[in-house]
């Protein structure tokens, strides 16, 4: 069976600067896969390539065995891809429930969008905030609602870009449990995150990007002790 996500030999250049250089990575169903690396390593650029917002100069992206390298974001979404962004992208004047409804109406269960929205609100314990407008949420809760909205399209693969930024310790703990539950449901989760404790606690495997190249990959215990990884982080200004 193919992996939910297979990224092969991806390169991206901005002018003369190689933001990604021959990146190969996989994310499996049932796994939380971490993507870490110092600032400017190329993590967001790789997410843009995977979600179809940026065309690579070399390489391929396959979703569930389908080559989508030349496909736009909408076709990738139809292959089960959803993502969140580093900056919150909720509809600020809409309620939490309406933010989920808008997404659910684009997903495979659009005919039961209301039911999908309510089920996710319950699952993420957001019922008390269902009628609150997104603008009124704290950053930490706003990030949780972003994940909720991504779930409303029933993704097979979810890309999360720094979802725990702005969350307090208790929110992060709940969030870790949510990520594990998503994986156990059979979703492939690809997580970019600077909170190393969260990454090391929830991920099945971790890829480390530095200056556009994968310098290490493996289970958290191995990555934690990898000398090239420690050197890359120590070199960070
Ligand atoms: N639109 C762009 N034009 C030119 N250079 C860019 C552009 N986007 C990113 N870069 C450069 O590409 C490299 C990778 O950036 P990217 O944002 O992907 O890194 P990152 O690992 O996500 O960083 P951070 O952890 O700070 O979010 C950086 O050197 C960055 O300055």
Strand elements, count: 10
Largest sheet: 6 strands, mixed
CATH superfamily: P-loop containing nucleotide triphosphate hydrolases
In CATH terms, what is the architecture?
A: 3-Layer(aba) Sandwich
Oligomer: single chain
Mean of pLDDT:
92
Distance between the termini: 42 Å
Strand content: 15-25%
Alpha plus pi helix count? 9
What ligands does this structure carry? adenosine-5'-triphosphate
Helix content: 25-40%
Count of individual domains: 1
Q: Helix-strand pattern, N to C?
A: EEEHEEHEHHHEHEHEEHH
Give the CATH class. Answer: Alpha Beta
Radius of gyration: 17 Å
Low-confidence segments: none
Class by helix and strand content?
Answer: alpha/beta
Organism: Rhodococcus chondri
GO molecular function: ATP binding
Keywords: ATP-binding, Nucleotide-binding, Transport
Domain ABC transporter: 5-236
